[in-house]
Specification:
By secondary structure, the chain is mainly beta. It contains 1 helix and 9 strands; from the N terminus they run αβββββββββ.
Length: 155
């Protein structure tokens, strides 16, 4: 009886191995989204008479300009074009502007920072440099440095 039971179990094991099938699943996943948000242009948009907007320069991620203001009340506005050339929508992350040492008679103002840049869309950021009109005396320093960071992140 025990031998019969052992033989039945062996036959079941052989039968199971004959009818068992191992399935293998292989796959490849590729990301096709592309991240490419960049600066594509900078130009002087508005300038007070007698001022010099310099020769503004840009790379994909930076702009540099040297504004020369003549008298209180003078302004120069730069238009910076940012474009989303990638396939992933971008939303505004961090905006930081830090003024370095220099005269408090010069103010910077940033306008029209777009909170969402869809794929293929472009936006213009305006940076206004102003010689404060309410200055009562000539400043001891005639320049001011600014560092601005505008960061777009994945939506």
């Amino acid at each position: 009886m025990i031998w019969t039971l052992v033989i039945v179990i062996l036959l079941m094991a052989v039968g199971y191995s004959v009818f068992a099938t191992q399935l293998n699943i292989n796959g490849t996943v590729e990301t096709i989204g592309e991240w490419d948000v960049r600066i594509t242009n900078i130009k002087v948009k508005e300038i007070s008479e007698g001022c010099d907007g310099g020769n503004p320069q840009f790379t994909n991620t930076t702009v540099t300009f040297d504004a020369k203001l003549e008298k209180p009340g003078d302004e120069i506005t730069y238009a910076i074009t940012v474009k989303n050339l990638g396939r992933i929508d971008a939303k505004l992350g961090t905006v930081i502007f830090m003024e370095g040492d220099g005269t408090p008679a010069i103010n910077y103002e940033t306008k029209e920072i777009k909170p969402l840049l869809s794929s293929g869309e472009q936006a213009t950021i305006l940076v206004k440099v102003e010689y404060v009109a309410e200055v009562n005396e000539m400043p001891s320093s005639n320049d001011k440095k600014i560092l601005g960071i505008i960061e777009y992140v994945q939506e």
